[in-house]
Amino acid sequence: MTKLRRVVLDVLKTHEPKLTDLALEICALEGIDGVNITVHEIDKSTESVKITIEGYDLDYDIIKDVIETMNGVIHSIDEVAAGTKIVDEVKTPQDR
Asked: Which of 35, 52, 69, 85 sees the fewest Cβ atoms within 10 Å?
């Protein structure tokens, strides 16, 4: 069975809980090898972040539940990789 290997999410969250706490909660889920959270914008009460999650068997619904429980809202799924290997995007001359 094919499994999700990478998911990149655009998320809006409140300042609490801290990013470190959110990363650790997501990373503690079964099938996840690593989590990277990058802040893109901060305002008075929220943070716009990009969350990259990699593993060998990601469960999107469980990840979504954790983010929502920790005061986050997923705005979009920006990238998904599935299969036995993660295939990175290849730049072509048209990508200049």
From this structure: 85
